[in-house]
Amino acid sequence: MKQMICVLSLLLCLTLSANSQQSAKVSKLHGTEYTIKTSDGLELHAWYTPSPFENAPLFVMLPMMGYIHTSYNPLIKAIYERFKSSDSTVKAAVLPGMLCFDLRGHGASTKLGDRSLSYRTMEAEDFHHYPSDVEAMIKHVLEQNNLQQQNLKMIIIGASIGANTAVMTAELLGGVAKVVMLSPGESYRELEPAASLINYKGKALIFAAEEDSYSRTSSEKLAALNKQHSQVKIYPGPFHGTDILDNNPEAMSFLVNWLIK
């Protein structure tokens, strides 16, 4: 009996140790947490993991509604795995820095003065702050790390309402090399990206799923507004935003390769 108890105790310790290691591994995907107060007093949170290389690209990641910064964990892992590859195209690239957001009304970014914001009850006017929120945080992180935007290849990746925000933020910042729009819409909570995409001079990659009818139609219409700089990819299934990547290895692989070119 004592021997059985010892065995069970050992198995429990090993299980707890494995779970602890797994949690530690996941937490390393996100570096230093940054907090700023936006122009209207929201405490906005984002996580910055620097590249070990000087003037490396910066990948900015904006979640879809209802999701927080950790929703990009599978993409971040796929990027890191790609850089472990012996592929010659990867050898010529530089491991990017990562900046991942909890957008207004999500996760840690819910405190506005003595109010608590939730995306579930926010009005359209609250969502209108998204592009300027993201712009302000990017500028703050660059300043705090002595980085100059003109020296960086910046890529903004957004999902759903984050996709609309991505290209609208790129217009505010200027000089953004690439934008990824995962399941954009012609209008999400009155955030309308068409004008920003028409004026965008970098490369835009748009993903949608066949059975996600509103986003698929929106994606095709948006890509047609800027054919010179936009590419649209339609994948099977009902998936939306980052769920397209998480459920389709081909979509994930295509995106990672496109990002590090």
Q: What keywords describe this structure?
A:
single chain; about 260 residues; alpha/beta; eight-stranded mixed beta sheet; two-stranded antiparallel sheet; 10 helices; 10 strands; about 40% helix; about 20% strand; globular
Number of beta strands: 10
Query: Count of helices?
Result: 10
Helix/strand order, N-terminal first: HEEEHHEEEHHEHEHEHEHH
Please indicate the percent range of residues in DSSP E strands (runs of 2 or more): 15-25%
Detailed description of the structure:
The chain is of the alpha/beta class. The chain has ten helices and ten strands. It is globular, with a radius of gyration of 20 Å.
List the helices and strands and how they pair.
Elements lengths: L1 H26 L4 E6 L5 E7 L8 E5 L10 H11 L4 H4 L5 E6 L8 E2 L2 E2 L7 H4 L2 H15 L9 E6 L1 H13 L4 E5 L11 H6 L3 E7 L3 H13 L4 E6 L6 H6 L1 H12 L1
Parallel strand pairs: 3-4, 3-7, 7-8, 8-9, 9-10
Antiparallel strand pairs: 1-2, 2-4, 5-6
Concise structural overview:
The chain has 261 residues and is of the alpha/beta class. Helices cover 42% and strands 20% of the residues.
